[in-house]
Structure formats: structure tokens, C-alpha cells
């Protein structure tokens, strides 16, 4: 039942994308082969550039919504590029014998780190057996005895001479608590003072001289002892050094030859040699008690003992395999500071925290060095210090390990300052667009370090890519997921759902996750029916089941309307009352519901009261829409008279927040209805925003809004008058459910496109809106004329009221 | 004397000063543990030393070779008393650590005379001696013509092993084979050595050059050894495994 005035209802063909099973020529989608990467040329180009460009700082940020396949595509492109890159170097940390708190990082050809570690372990094992044997050898013992003998013999000979001469001089050397006492003797007995006094002066003088001489010789012999001790120690040390040098040189020779081409290793081995020789005694520690195991010494893993840890090789990065692996592609799902740049671990010893170079652990940057590192932007931004550390590494081109506790001075213990490792890595950040835009706006380093943006499309337009390529992509998703193939009707339904996902009949979704989920659910229902292929019914079932699962809130809303708890009319007419439409989005569910919008007008000073805003339930965009419609009112009617209107607008029975401007057309129409006293047809609902010229502008969620009002009308019984007014600009977005299309096809429901507010007036009132004539007036009987007349009347009353007020004041 | 009439079995560590006693304390403890004896300390305030202290023209030199002045009888007696206290304290501590019975006495007289007076037949005497140089690497057993099976050799081998020293045995050539065989049966210390005993004069000359860690003398044999001369020659702690009698 069409109005004599107003826009014509849309034909059925305009209500959804024209995808039909006949458009597909395959029997099942198993015949189709393609790629998942359609419509992503921009992003793929950026990723390939990031993967292949050798200049630093061309790291990439992959923008896109989760489920767009961005991670899978990033992995695939990087893996392909990595295969063509050489394997990066191995890295090890070794002891710095001069400064143990500054471990030395050594770069090695790929695959050599583990070899060096094993070679050093074998060296220590070998020396642990060889050095004790060397020092236990007859050769060493003989030479040592020779030193001992030569050392003591000289002293002993001197002491013997002193004692011999003392005896010859009749002088005794007595050992006393106060040292030695030298005294004359007679007949082998110490001479008493009495006997001494009885001697002649010559005899006394001779004895005194003998005593003095002996004293001096004894003192000289004793004073020479420290010097001899020192020389003895030096001789023994020289012997030990010579023995250790011989043993170490023999053992280390093979190792040096194996790594002769690597200067850093050669330097390290020189330092190891020197330290081994200097500290050969650690190989001579006896294995007693618990340390002595049940195995023969030769089979013991000596290198694992703590005292040999200084010679260990801490392999930080080791490229294993046969050399065909290419560069690494590392993904770090938990990019904490430690997982990113590595960490220094500590062990508790006697209540103190200690560490050494073997406790340096690598991070993702070490493992990815020479290749690619994939990080989630949200994760790294939410980990303390991680983003800062990543930027520092990229900026300085090296990985320096430090701990946040040290940085914040939270711990005070002996720590390490390991050599930083040179860094050559391409970092790929994955994240939603909001992170990219925020970083670009707020972090001045970001643009410099991440020069490439790989922006993944959320959709493709149907015109830019043949439906064949998209169908092939669907076929690949099904194949990758191990699902049944689709028949052409099912493919058409998938296309329809894809349009629904984008909310646009001219666009197809590239949300691979959502498509994959839908296909898997359809596959499930198809399998439960025992079918070999996925048919349209299975897709339909999957969609219906999804809506049912997520439909509790929608059903509650509809039930409240149908039970007239929420007052929504779907027939009849009423002045100043209109059915607006809104979309609720909760979780992954979107649905539309009608709501009643009412307007009241009277004489005033040009104020439109937005009750939602006054009660602070209206959002800023809603308020903007209100001000725009005021602009329209002010310019469309009675421009030669003061605006003498007071109007109020409210969403009835709305107790939550309201935002968006998609109801601004409804609000304007409700005011015009109230002003002109022309009733509005309640069998229609309307959505659309309006500008100051009265043009109707596109809104979002058009499909859900139409379906929301349709479901209420259908539940009450379709009359054929019912329908929804939508902006003409939204017609291309229509991708309505089959139930709506069937009702329209049967003439039971209407979708009316509006281009201007006049279209809305005429469709809702059945009365001509009216265009201003050459005389400056709207046609008699038109809605606009009635509205303008009312405004003029308000202005006249206001003027009269003002004049009366002045007279009263004059009289007084 | 014990109640049974058998005197207690002791290792007597004797010296005329604390320095000598302390230098032989470890050896005495090892020996006491090895033979299962108690440890007795004996500091002899040697009359000869006191006589020398009275002498106006005697000279004193410290163990490090510095001249010491103003040595009088009184200062020497005070030094003996101080050494006795220190010796006793250290001895008790070492004996307690090694779980040994202990005793101590400080007596005036001549060292060898006092030893001859107080030692029993089963006692072992250790005469302390502080070496000017650090400890030597060998224990020396003077066996002479004594049969190696008499127990002296076994004692010396065990003591050398416990002290991580090699053993040098002076014995007449007819015992060489048995001694070398005993070396082979032993374990722990290698490089033990047999040397022929060719009379006292030869022994004294060799000892003067050897700088041993300790000297073990089997006294009470047919040819009594001049103990004082051996001590002066070896200049190291001396262990007397028989009666403390002075030979010629």
C-alpha cells in the first residue's frame, strides 16, 4: 500500500547483494584453487619490502584487525625471505679473565658455538687427568726434590758450619724461650760466671771473641733464611709453571688449530692458556668425600665442577642443522624485558646473590639476530620496560643486557656488564590500528624505527576482485581447515554472509577468522546431516544457530515491546511521535530495536530542549545532531521573524546512554509533526542523520535496524503499510535476511529510501512537504506551510506579548 | 704408676722452649693417635740455659737472627714460665681436638737427664725442634742394625703416610731387601727410600745436609746413639722410640 506522495519503496533486488548460485560454475569448491591473500596487495608489498630491504630501521608495523590473517601472512612472507638469507652467526659468552664482571661476547660462524663449548669441555677433562699426572710424575718429583735439596742444603751447610765452628771454639748455642743463647763452654759444660772470672784476661778475651764471632755468624745464617725462602718459592713456582705450560700447550694445541681462523677465539684461547697455567693448582685438588664419585676419575665430567666453570662456554645463540635453515623467524608471545633482551640470573650462596657469565640467558632478540622477530604490539606495550628496551636495541643496533631491578636500584649485589651483542634484526610488530596511530602520534621514536606500515584490508570491494578469486579463497579456507567442500548455493550464502559482515552489499569481508568459523560451523551441521558437501541449508543453519545462541538479549528487547512494556506503535498515527531505530552491540552480537521518540512544541525563544542531554544521558555526537537540526529549523521556516519556538525531544523509556546522530532525522521530523500538527504514520520507522540543508545522510547498522523493526511488526502481524525509511545513501549497504526480503517480495513490508527531509515528511505523513514558491511561501496545505504558519503565529504572539509588557511598564 | 703396676703409655713431647714444642706438636698428636697413647707435655727449664743467662758475656740472638739484649736469669725464668703456660694451653687444645688423654709438667734440670728420669719403658719421646727453614719433606728412621720387623719400620711408615711425607730409612745393608719389600706393601706415600747405615759419623754428616721433617731413632739398641749430636745434626724434631738414654 504505497503513499500517493513520498519516495517509492525499494525493489527486492536492491535489498541484498545480487549473488546467486548460478554465478558459480563449479560443482563443488574442491575444484577451486587460489590464495588466502586476496585484496592485501598494499600490506603484502610493505611486508615484502620489510623482509627484503637490508637497510636498518625499516621495521614494519602490521596493522589490521584480529582474524584478518595478518599473522599467518606475515609468517609466510618472512619464512620465504628467511630461506634466502644466510644463516646468522652463533654467539657465546666466555669468561673475561682480566675483568670477570665483564663477560666477553664472541661471534662464531654458524654451527661453531656448540663445537667450541664441547671442545672446551674436552680440554678441561683432558687437563683434569693430565695435570695431576704431570705433577705426580717422577720427572716433576725429581726436579722438585732437587729444588728442595738445593734450597735446604745451602742453609743446612751454613748452619752446620756455624755449629761446627762454635764447637771448635768451645762455644755452645742453646735454644731458649728467648731465642738462641751463645755462651762459652769448658769440658762440654756451659761456663759459669764464676769459672769465667777465674780465667786470665787473655783467656776471657779469647772466649769473648769466640762468642761474638759465633753470634755474628749465627745471626747472619738466620737472617738469610727469608731470602732463601723467597727464592725457593720462586724456583718452585717456575717449575710448576714450566710443567703446567707443557701440559696445557699440548692439550690446547688441537683446539687452537680447530679455531685458528677466528681471531676472537684465538685471543680467548690465549687468555685461557695463561689462566690455566697460572691456576694449574685447581686441577690438583683432591677428590675427597662426597665429591669422589663411584666412577673412575678419567670418566668423570670434570668440566661440570664449579672450580672449572671459569672455562665454560655459555652458548647464547647456536644455529643447529645442516645449513639450509636460512635466517631465523622468531615469534615471542611473552615479550617481557627479560624475554626480549635476555637476563642475568643469580644463585643464592650463603645468603648472598652471586652470578657469573654462565648465568647470562639469551632473549628473543639474540635468537632472532640476523633474521626476523615478530612481536605483538599490545603485548610489548603492556610489559614494563620492554618497549623502551626494544627501541634502544634498534636504535643502537646492539643488545645490552640489564635488569630492571638494577636500573631502579632495587637490588644491590655484584652483577655483570656483559659485552653488548651487535644487532641486525627486522622487527615486525602486529597490532590493531589504534596502537599504530597512538604510537605514531605519541612516540617520536616510532616513525624513525618503524618506517613501514603494512595495513591489512578488512574487506574488498566486489568490483575490484572477481567473485571467482574470492570463492577460491573460501575454498582454500575450507581446504586448510580440513572441511567439506561447498556447493554453489552454499558459496552464494557465504558471499551473502560476507556482505553482512562488512555491512555493505558491495564489499566482501577479509576477516578470515570469521569466515573460517562460519565454514566450520556449516561443516558441522553438514556432517550431522550426513552430507559430503556443505550446502546452503548448512550455512543457513549455522547462521540461524549463531543468531539463536546470541539472541537472548534481542529476544528480551522484542518481548518487552510485544508485551507493551516498552510502548512502540506499529500502526495508527500520532502527532509528534515517531519510531526511531537503534543498534545495540554487545560482545560479537549486533541487533536493532525500535524506540519511541516524541517531540512537544510551544511558544518560546528558539530553544530546543534535548532531554537526553539535559539529563546527561546524551553523548556528544547526539548533541551535535540536535544542534544541526536546530540549524535546519532556523533556516527553513519563518526566516523573517524571530525564532519563537520552544521544543522538547526525548527517547521515551530510554534509561541508558544515547549517542550517535542516526536519529537526528527522526528528531527533526517529530518536531515538524508537532509544529505542523500533522500526525505521523506509526507503521513506519526511520533512521538517518540530517544536515542543515535537510539532506539525509548515511548511518551504520542499517540491516540490523530494519530487521529489528521488521521482527516486531512480523510478530504483531504484517499489514503491508509497515516499513522503514532509510537514507538513500545506505541502499548499497543492504544485505537483509531472507525473511525480510520475502516479506517485501510479498508486499507485506517496505523499505523506503530518503534523500531529503521532505521525503521523510511525505512518507510519514502522506502529505506533501512543500517547496517554497516564488512568493516566498510554502504551498497552502503543505506540511512546511503549516509548520511555518505556526512559527509565525508564535512570533506574532511573542511580539504582542512583548508590546503588552511595555505598555504595562509605561502605565506604571 | 697405674694400679696394675704398669705405667700409662704416653707420647711425651718435650722441649726447652715453646717454639720447639709447637713445631713438633702436630707430629706428636699424629703419633699418639697412631699408637693409642696419651699425650704428655714436658717443658724443661734447662739449667744450662739459666747458667748462660747469668753469664755477663753470653750473647742472645732471636730465632730470626736479631740481637737480643738484657737477658737475665729473671727474664729467662719469666720466659720459661710464659712458654710453659702457652705450651700447656696449646697442648690441651690439640689433645682435646684429637680426643687424647693429656698431661703436662714443667721441670727444671737438663733435658736428657729429665727425660731419662721420667720416661717409662713403653713411652715414646718426641724432642721438639723449630726449624729455621720450613718443614722438610722426609721422615728419617734410623734403624741401624735393628730388625725391620721389630715394629719401628711399621710405625715410621704409618706416621709418614699420616703426615704425607716420604720415609728415608737408614739401616745396615742386610735389611735392605725386607725394607724395600715393606715399602712396596705400604700405600699412600711414594718415593720412600732406603739408605745404608754406615756408622754414626757417616749418619751425622748425612743428617746435616738432609733437613728432614723429623728423625725417628730406635734407642736402646746395642750401639747406643748420641741423641744430642743427632738432634744438633738433623735440626728437626726427634722421636725416640726406646729409653731416652744418651749414647756416645
Topology, element by element:
The complex is a heterodimer of chains A (812) and B (248).
Chain A: H1 41-52, E1 60-63, H2 70-83, E2 90-94, E3 104-108, H3 112-135, H4 138-168, E4 171-176, E5 179-186, E6 189-190, H5 193-198, H6 201-223, H7 225-258, H8 263-278, E7 313-317, E8 329-332, H9 337-341, E9 343-344, E10 347-349, E11 352-354, E12 360-361, H10 364-368, E13 372-376, H11 377-382, H12 386-396, E14 398-399, H13 404-407, E15 421-422, E16 426-431, H14 433-442, H15 446-449, E17 452-455, E18 459-461, H16 467-480, H17 488-502, E19 507-509, H18 512-528, H19 536-549, H20 552-562, E20 573-574, E21 577-586, E22 589-603, E23 607-610, H21 611-614, H22 620-636, E24 645-651, H23 664-676, E25 680-681, E26 684-686, E27 689-690, E28 696-697, H24 702-716, E29 723-727, H25 738-745, E30 750-754, H26 757-765, H27 783-811
Parallel strand pairs in A: 1-16, 1-17, 8-13, 13-16, 21-26, 23-24, 26-29, 29-30
Antiparallel strand pairs in A: 2-3, 2-7, 4-5, 5-6, 9-12, 10-11, 14-15, 18-19, 20-25, 21-22, 22-24, 27-28
Helix pairs in contact in A: 1-2, 3-7, 4-6, 4-7, 7-8, 17-19, 18-19, 22-23, 23-26, 23-27
Chain B: E1 10-15, H1 18-35, E2 38-46, H2 47-54, E3 59-61, E4 67-68, H3 73-97, E5 102-109, H4 111-118, E6 124-127, E7 138-144, H5 152-162, E8 166-171, H6 176-185, E9 193-196, H7 200-210, E10 214-217, H8 227-234, E11 238-240
Parallel strand pairs in B: 1-2, 1-6, 2-5, 7-8, 7-10, 8-9, 10-11
Antiparallel strand pairs in B: 3-4, 6-11
Helix pairs in contact in B: 1-3, 1-5, 7-8
Amino acid at each position: 500500500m504505497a503513499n500517493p506522495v513520498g519516495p517509492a519503496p525499494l525493489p527486492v533486488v536492491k535489498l541484498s547483494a545480487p549473488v546467486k548460485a548460478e554465478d558459480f560454475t563449479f560443482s563443488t569448491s574442491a575444484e577451486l584453487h587460489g590464495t588466502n591473500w586476496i585484496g592485501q596487495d598494499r600490506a603484502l608489498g610493505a611486508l615484502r619490502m620489510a623482509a627484503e630491504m637490508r637497510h636498518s630501521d625499516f621495521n614494519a608495523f602490521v596493522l589490521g584487525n584480529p582474524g584478518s590473517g595478518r599473522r599467518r601472512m606475515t609468517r609466510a612472507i618472512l619464512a620465504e625471505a628467511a630461506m634466502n638469507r644466510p644463516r646468522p652467526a652463533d654467539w657465546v659468552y666466555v669468561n673475561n679473565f682480566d675483568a670477570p664482571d665483564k663477560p666477553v661476547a664472541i661471534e662464531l660462524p654458524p654451527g661453531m658455538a656448540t663445537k667450541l663449548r664441547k671442545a672446551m669441555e674436552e680440554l678441561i677433562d683432558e687437563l683434569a687427568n693430565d695435570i695431576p699426572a704431570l705433577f705426580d710424575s717422577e720427572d716433576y718429583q725429581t726436579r722438585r726434590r732437587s729444588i728442595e735439596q738445593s734450597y735446604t742444603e745451602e742453609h743446612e751447610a751454613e748452619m752446620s758450619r756455624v755449629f761446627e765452628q762454635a764447637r771448635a771454639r768451645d762455644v755452645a748455642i742453646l735454644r731458649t724461650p728467648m731465642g738462641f743463647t751463645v755462651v762459652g763452654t769448658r769440658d762440654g759444660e756451659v761456663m759459669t760466671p764464676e769459672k769465667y772470672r777465674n780465667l786470665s784476661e787473655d783467656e776471657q778475651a779469647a772466649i769473648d771473641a769466640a762468642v761474638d764471632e759465633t753470634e755474628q755468624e749465627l745471626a747472619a745464617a738466620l737472617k738469610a733464611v727469608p731470602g732463601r725462602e723467597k727464592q725457593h718459592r720462586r724456583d718452585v713456582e717456575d717449575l710448576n709453571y714450566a710443567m703446567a705450560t707443557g701440559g696445557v700447550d699440548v692439550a690446547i694445541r688441537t683446539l687452537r688449530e680447530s679455531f685458528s681462523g677466528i681471531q676472537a677465539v684465538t685471543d680467548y684461547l690465549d687468555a685461557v692458556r695463561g689462566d690455566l697455567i697460572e691456576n694449574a693448582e685447581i686441577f690438583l685438588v683432591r677428590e675427597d668425600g662426597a665429591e669422589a664419585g663411584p666412577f673412575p676419575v678419567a670418566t668423570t665430567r670434570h668440566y661440570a665442577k664449579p672450580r672449572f666453570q671459569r672455562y665454560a662456554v655459555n652458548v647464547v645463540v647456536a644455529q643447529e642443522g645442516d645449513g639450509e635453515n636460512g635466517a631465523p623467524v622468531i615469534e615471542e608471545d611473552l615479550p617481557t624485558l627479560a624475554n626480549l633482551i635476555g637476563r642475568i640470573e643469580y644463585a643464592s650462596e650463603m645468603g648472598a646473590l652471586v652470578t657469573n657469565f654462565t648465568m647470562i640467558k639469551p632473549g628473543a632478540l639474540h635468537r632472532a639476530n640476523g633474521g626476523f622477530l615478530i612481536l605483538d604490539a599490545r603485548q610489548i606495550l603492556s610489559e614494563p620496560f620492554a618497549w623502551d628496551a626494544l627501541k634502544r636495541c634498534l636504535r643502537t643496533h646492539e643488545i645490552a643486557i640489564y635488569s630492571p631491578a638494577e636500573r631502579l636500584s632495587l637490588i644491590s649485589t655484584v652483577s655483570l656488564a656483559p659485552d653488548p651483542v651487535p644487532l641486525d634484526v627486522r622487527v615486525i610488530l602486529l597490532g590493531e590500528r589504534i596502537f599504530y596511530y597512538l604510537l605514531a602520534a605519541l612516540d617520536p621514536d616510532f616513525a624513525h624505527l618503524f618506517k613501514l606500515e603494512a595495513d591489512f584490508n578488512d574487506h574488498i570491494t566486489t568490483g575490484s576482485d572477481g567473485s571467482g578469486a574470492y570463492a577460491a579463497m573460501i575454498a582454500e579456507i575450507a581446504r586448510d581447515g580440513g572441511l567439506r567442500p561447498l556447493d554453489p548455493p552454499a558459496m552464494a550464502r557465504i558471499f551473502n554472509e560476507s556482505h553482512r559482515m562488512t555491512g555493505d552489499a558491495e564489499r566482501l569481508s577479509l576477516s578470515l577468522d570469521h569466515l573460517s568459523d562460519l565454514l566450520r560451523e556449516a561443516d558441522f551441521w553438514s556432517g550431522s546431516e550426513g552430507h559430503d558437501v556443505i550446502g546452503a541449508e548448512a550455512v543457513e543453519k549455522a547462521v540461524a544457530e549463531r543468531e539463536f545462541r546470541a539472541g537472548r538479549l534481542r529476544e528480551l528487547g522484542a518481548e518487552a515491546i510485544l508485551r507493551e512494556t516498552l510502548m512502540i506503535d506499529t500502526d495508527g498515527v500520532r502527532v509528534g511521535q515517531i519510531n526511531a531505530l537503534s543498534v545495540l552491540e554487545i560482545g560479537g552480537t549486533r541487533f536493532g530495536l525500535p524506540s519511541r521518540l516524541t517531540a512537544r512544541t510551544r511558544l518560546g525563544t528558539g530553544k530546543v530542549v534535548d532531554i537526553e542531554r539535559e539529563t546527561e544521558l546524551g553523548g556528544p555526537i547526539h548533541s551535535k545532531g540536535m544542534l544541526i537540526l536546530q540549524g535546519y529549523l532556523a533556516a527553513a521556516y519563518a526566516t523573517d521573524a524571530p525564532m519563537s519556538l520552544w521544543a522538547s525531544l526525548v527517547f521515551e523509556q530510554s534509561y541508558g546512554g544515547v549517542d550517535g546522530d542516526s536519529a537526528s532525522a527522526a528528531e527533526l521530523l517529530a518536531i515538524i509533526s508537532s509544529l505542523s500538527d500533522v500526525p505521523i504514520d506509526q507503521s513506519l520507522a526511520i533512521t538517518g542523520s540530517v544536515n542543515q540543508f535537510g539532506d539525509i545522510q548515511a548511518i551504520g547498522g542499517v540491516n540490523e535496524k530494519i530487521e529489528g523493526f521488521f521482527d516486531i511488526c512480523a510478530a504483531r502481524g504484517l499489514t503491508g503499510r509497515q516499513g522503514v525509511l532509510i537514507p538513500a545513501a545506505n541502499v548499497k549497504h543492504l544485505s537483509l535476511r531472507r525473511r525480510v526480503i520475502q516479506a517485501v517480495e510479498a508486499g507485506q513490508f517496505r523499505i523506503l529510501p530518503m534523500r531529503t527531509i521532505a521525503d521523510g515528511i511525505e512518507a510519514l505523513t502522506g502529505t506533501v512537504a512543500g517547496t517554497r514558491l516564488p512568493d516566498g511561501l510554502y504551498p497552502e496545505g503543505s506540511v512546511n506551510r503549516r509548520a511555518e504558519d505556526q512559527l509565525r503565529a508564535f512570533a506574532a504572539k511573542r511580539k504582542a506579548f512583548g508590546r503588552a509588557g511595555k505598555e504595562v511598564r509605561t502605565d506604571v | 704408676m697405674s694400679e696394675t703396676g704398669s705405667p700409662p703409655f704416653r707420647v711425651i713431647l718435650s722441649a726447652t722452649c715453646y717454639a720447639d714444642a709447637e713445631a713438633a706438636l702436630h707430629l706428636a698428636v699424629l703419633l699418639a693417635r697412631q699408637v693409642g697413647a696419651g699425650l704428655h707435655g714436658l717443658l724443661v727449664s734447662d739449667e744450662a740455659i739459666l747458667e748462660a743467662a747469668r753469664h755477663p758475656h753470653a750473647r742472645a740472638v732471636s730465632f730470626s737472627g736479631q740481637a737480643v739484649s738484657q737477658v737475665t736469669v729473671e727474664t729467662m725464668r719469666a720466659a720459661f714460665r710464659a712458654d710453659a703456660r702457652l705450651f700447656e694451653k696449646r697442648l690441651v687444645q690439640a689433645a682435646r681436638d684429637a680426643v687424647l688423654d693429656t698431661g703436662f709438667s714443667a721441670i727444671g734440670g737438663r733435658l736428657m737427664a729429665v727425660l731419662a728420669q721420667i720416661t717409662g719403658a713403653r713411652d715414646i719421646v718426641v724432642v721438639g725442634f723449630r726449624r729455621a727453614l720450613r718443614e722438610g719433606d722426609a721422615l728419617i728412621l734410623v734403624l741401624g742394625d735393628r730388625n725391620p720387623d721389630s715394629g719401628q719400620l711399621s710405625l715410621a711408615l704409618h706416621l709418614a703416610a699420616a703426615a704425607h711425607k716420604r720415609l728415608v730409612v737408614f739401616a745396615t745393608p742386610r735389611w735392605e731387601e725386607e725394607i724395600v719389600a715393606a715399602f712396596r706393601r705400604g700405600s699412600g706415600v711414594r718415593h720412600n727410600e732406603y739408605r745404608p747405615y754406615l756408622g754414626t759419623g757417616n749418619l751425622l754428616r748425612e743428617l746435616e745436609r738432609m733437613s728432614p721433617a723429623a728423625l725417628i731413632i730406635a734407642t736402646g739398641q746395642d750401639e747406643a746413639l748420641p741423641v744430642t749430636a743427632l738432634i744438633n745434626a738433623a735440626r728437626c724434631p726427634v722421636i725416640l722410640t726406646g729409653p731416652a738414654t744418651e749414647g756416645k
